Amino acid sequence: MRIPDEILRSVSKPGRYVGGEYGQIIKNKEDIAARFAFCFPDTYEIGMSNLGIRILYGTLNSQPDIWCERCYCPWTDMYEKMCENGIPLYAHESGDPIKDFDFVGFTLQYELCYTTVLAMLKLAGIPLLSSERADDCPIIIGGGPCTYNPEPVADFFDLFSIGEGEDALTEAVRLYIDMKKSGSYTREKYLREASHLKGFYVPSLYDVEYNGDGSISRFEPKYPDVPARVTKRIMQNMDEAFFPECFVMPYIETVHDRIMLEVCRGCYRGCRFCQAGMTYRPVRRRSPEVLNEQARKLFANTGYDEISLTSLSISDYPWLDRLTDSLLEWTDGEHVSLSLPSLRADSFTRELMEKISSVRASGITFAPEAGTQRLRDVINKNVTEEEILAACRIAFAFGRDSVKLYFMQGHPTETEEDLRGINDLAKDVVEEYYKNPDRKKGRQPHVTISCACFIPKPFTPFQWEAQDSLEEAKRKQEFVRSTITDRKIKYNYHDATVSRIEAVFARGSRRLCPALLEAAKRGVMLDAWEEFFDYDGWLDIFAAVGVEPAFYAEREIPEDEILPWDVIDAGIRKEFLLSERHRAYEGKITPDCVHGCAGCGANRLGGEMTCCPKPNKKK
Predict the structure, then answer these.
(1) Which of 5, 418, 448, 500 has the fewest CB atoms lying closer than 10 Å?
(2) Cis peptide, bond prior to residue 613, ω within 30 of zero
């Protein structure tokens, strides 16, 4: 399919839609047994920056008889042109309509992408409801972080891949190919067989019943051969896991125009609000030697001048010195800079600062998450004010004059004293700058406070907690603003209305599917973009279908209630999450996995290179 030039000239950033990028994979259709369209439910420049899609794109295409292509959501101007001219959603490599593919996969990175998924299916000409798709329709499969509670979108997906997809997706496609070759394929038979594969959840194979108040009374498989719970998949050994040697190179500037090296997966810290820290366990790491070789190949094949070392907490990587030393042996000569995001204050050292001192002269970011030590203990942040200030002293000693501090407002047990502590900590950071005898005269420090709203997430110790009401969230934001009087401190905060809708879908059940269907009928899409998000519009949608958003966001869930995501086994025992919740209210911290196993349960999933020891038999 070729988009007419007059259409491309009439829309913004036409490079989003033309395909033909360097590094794309083209195959002979005659050699292909199954085609997979990998869709990112956001714009091209965001989707092209996603490392997960790059990995899975390469994994599927490593199979000679499988062709995986890319697809992104058009911006609204192009979406309208495609509708007006009868142009269906198409894949970038071949230009073929994605409705003609065998699989259409979506990565669900955040709750506000759900409406964009439906908008893309609508543009593709694929029925939105799984129940309305015939055998000649592609299998719609979802993956990514949001599938740890897939219920709000259960009616729209045929299949969910829970956990890490490198091996899982290939297995699912291979099952499809085998059934097609044997002549036994029907959509119904395939989905039944796919439910037997580890890590795959088929929502249509489960019955859900509700109590009068909207809570779940029964959640069971319809057939005895369908698993009662679906256990996530993980890659056992990261050194052996697929990693692309070349990225598809974009035509236009993207969010992350750089090499991204996936250093490790998982986190052993145990912050009680953090879903990624829980669901990505156990920790598995790549060796410095493998990472250095991957970086060399990617540089040779892309020419990027920056390498970002990615993980949930890069300064916790035990071989960081070895890795950075080996990278610096050749990156300096090639004028390639190193970027180390997600630094923790308690593991930030002078040696580490020396390694990154030449990267850029901008600021350093740390995430205290709470303004007082009491509340940091409640959320199990395991970082002290002195450690935060010590990290800032090191940054200031190396000529930095800008620090960003990330916080979250609305934690359980939060008080005004905790909120006031946000500004108090920022003021202490400013004072640390002036204590530096080597600071540049005439320059002032800049401390930016960035505050998000607490959202109770599945598979965290705080999954049962209530989110602050919208009025209370706004009151807290204004209170923090009122405490800040120093012009050297800047205060940014997230839109509380956005966080409210995120919370609704984060803890939602299948009863939210009608709301999403109504949103699709009204043309709602790209909710993650400020210019398109309409909170009042969402309230109107919820009212139209009889959904009370406070039930999902503001309600404290009883600990014995069946949760929508109980059908998923993320590796973390519910008993552990409950214990951590109780410890939070007692103000007790739980040491990280390096200092002793707390018995979360993730180690039963295996992993060649896990940071924490195997739990003993008593646990």
Answers:
(1) 5
(2) no
Q: What are the CA-CA distances from residue 308 to residues 22, 51, 234, 258, 337 (Å)? A: 21, 11, 23, 7, 9
Pair of tokens at residue 4: 């007419």
Q: For residue 55, which of 265, 231, 296 has the smallest C-alpha distance? A: 265
pLDDT in tens, 100-109: 999 999 999 9
What is the separation of C-alpha 400 from the centre of its chain, rounded to a whole number of angstroms? 30
Domain count, the chain: 1
Burial class (CB in 10 A: 0-12, 13-18, 19+), 516: buried
Nearest in space to 43 (alpha carbons), one of 502, 529, 505, 495: 529
10 part of a folded domain: yes
Closest by CA position to 374, among listed 412, 343, 423, 430: 412
What's 57's domain CATH number?
Answer: 3.40.50.280
- Whether 109 is covered by a domain: the verdict is yes
- Residue 272 in any domain: the answer is no
pLDDT in tens, 505-523: 999 999 999 999 999 999 9
CA–CA dist 359, 602 (Å, integer) = 36
Q: Which residues span the domain enclosing 117?
A: 5-231
